[in-house]
Design brief:
Alpha-Beta Plaits, Ubiquitin-like (UB roll), four-stranded antiparallel β-sheet, globular, 34% strand, alpha+beta, 20 strands
Length: 411
């Protein structure tokens, strides 16, 4: 199964994710029972009413949290909130995975505040996050995820809208996204994006929950069969869009999916020797693949199209290399998703003609059929050592590998 979190339009907050999980099918009575136990661990706060109600947001029926609390607390130490969350998680018997998740969420929030203000984590005080609703969000979501058995499923997240404009909080006014949001998402794999909402769309609690839950960022929905959908409504209303978080649960195909960059440039005055050397240099920089195509460009000029598949991490180094080596004046950058057949990498030792060789190969399966491919560098090295043609060497190696695999499968 795969759970897709879709905060592309309205961003995410803790209560929006909690509501979407209940709308997806989480047992709300379990959530109520667990949250009500939290009151005794957070002095000065009590829950007068908690419920979920169906509402319409721009024509979308979604679930909204109704939370009426009684508290006269304007700030709390971060460690006080953490202790209350840990005590509640233990008291209601959450699984170890759920406990670790809840603790990691509050740890992330405390750590971000510590770094922003330059104080120790023991000294961090919460203002906006001091209310019991922070505990309600984190503990409630941990209960819901456990109830839906989602801790053992793949979770992916689409780009996260953070809004725009400015935000006003206890320390004054600053541009949106605020420092806490940026600190939380820093060094995570998740992608954020702004828009013209002129409001904070992603809250610190929502951000902390995401970075501890969705480790797989995606640009598009994966190939999947949809089983259920949950809609969680936020408290604010906007004129141009529904303030609703959408989550989708379904069965993913046998493919894996990842996001890559495609770099393209045309050159018409570079020799074949330079291009051949360029391929090796680009691969050394971490490219996934390089292709060079012959063609005819403007004014009938012969041209070479250089196309590179790489990750965002390696993109800038490869762009520098393309400019320095070819003198190109422009490089096209394209975003692309790839469907990848899952594979396993094996390293085996084989005896051929009395000599021992290390052989790397990739094994992959699709629609019940399994195949493997030998690493060409190993194939070339062994071919030279045996003084045999590459095709003959490959045939020998395949027979030996098949023997090993068949013996591993035997009872």
């Amino acid at each position: 199964m795969v759970l897709v979190i879709d905060p592309q339009i309205a961003g995410i907050s803790g209560d929006m994710l909690l509501c979407s999980l209940v709308d997806l099918g989480a047992n709300k009575n379990k959530i109520f029972d667990g949250i009500k136990q939290a009151e005794k661990y957070l002095a000065g706060s009590s829950i007068v009413k908690i419920d979920f109600q169906k509402i319409q947001k721009h024509g979308i029926e979604s679930l909204q949290l109704i939370l009426d609390i009684d508290e006269d607390v304007h700030e709390r130490k971060g460690l006080e909130i953490k202790q209350a969350i840990n005590n509640t998680a233990h008291a209601i018997g959450l699984s170890e995975k759920a406990k670790m998740f809840a603790e990691s969420c509050i740890d992330t929030l405390i750590s971000s505040e510590s770094k922003i203000h330059g104080v120790s984590e023991d000294s961090v005080h919460f203002h906006e996050s001091s209310s019991i609703d922070t505990l309600v969000d984190i503990v409630g979501i941990a209960i819901a995820l456990e109830d839906l058995a989602l801790f053992d499923q793949k979770i992916v997240c689409l780009p996260i809208s953070v809004g725009g404009g400015s935000v006003t909080f206890s320390h004054g006014m600053m541009s949106n996204p605020a420092s806490a949001i940026l600190e939380i998402f820093k060094n995570s794999n998740l992608v954020i994006k702004g828009n013209n909402a002129n409001e904070e769309l992603t809250t610190p609690t929502g951000a902390c929950i995401l970075v501890n839950l969705a480790v797989n960022p995606v640009s598009y929905y994966p190939q999947m069969k949809i089983d259920s959908i949950g809609y969680g409504a936020g408290q604010k209303d906007f004129e141009s869009f529904a303030n609703v978080l959408k989550i989708v649960l379904g069965s993913e195909s046998n493919f894996e999916i990842d996001a890559v960059k495609i770099l393209e440039t045309n050159v018409d005055d570079v020799s074949g020797e330079i291009l051949g050397n360029l391929i090796e240099k680009i691969m050394e920089k971490g490219a996934r693949d390089v292709s060079i195509y012959n063609g005819i460009s403007k004014k009938g000029r012969p041209t070479n199209l250089i196309s590179v598949i790489c990750t965002e991490k390696n993109m800038n180094k490869i762009i520098d290399l393309l400019v320095m080596e070819t003198g190109t004046l422009g490089i096209r950058i394209l975003d692309s998703n790839r469907f990848i057949i899952p594979r396993k990498v094996f390293d085996v030792s084989l005896i051929l003609n009395g000599e021992s060789f290390q052989v790397h190969y990739k094994q992959f399966s699709y629609k019940g059929k399994t195949n493997f491919k030998i690493e060409f560098d190993d194939l070339k090295k062994i071919s030279n050592a045996l003084d045999k043609p590459v095709k003959e060497t490959e045939s020998l190696l395949r027979k030996e590998i098949e023997k090993l695999e068949n013996s591993d499968e035997s009872p």
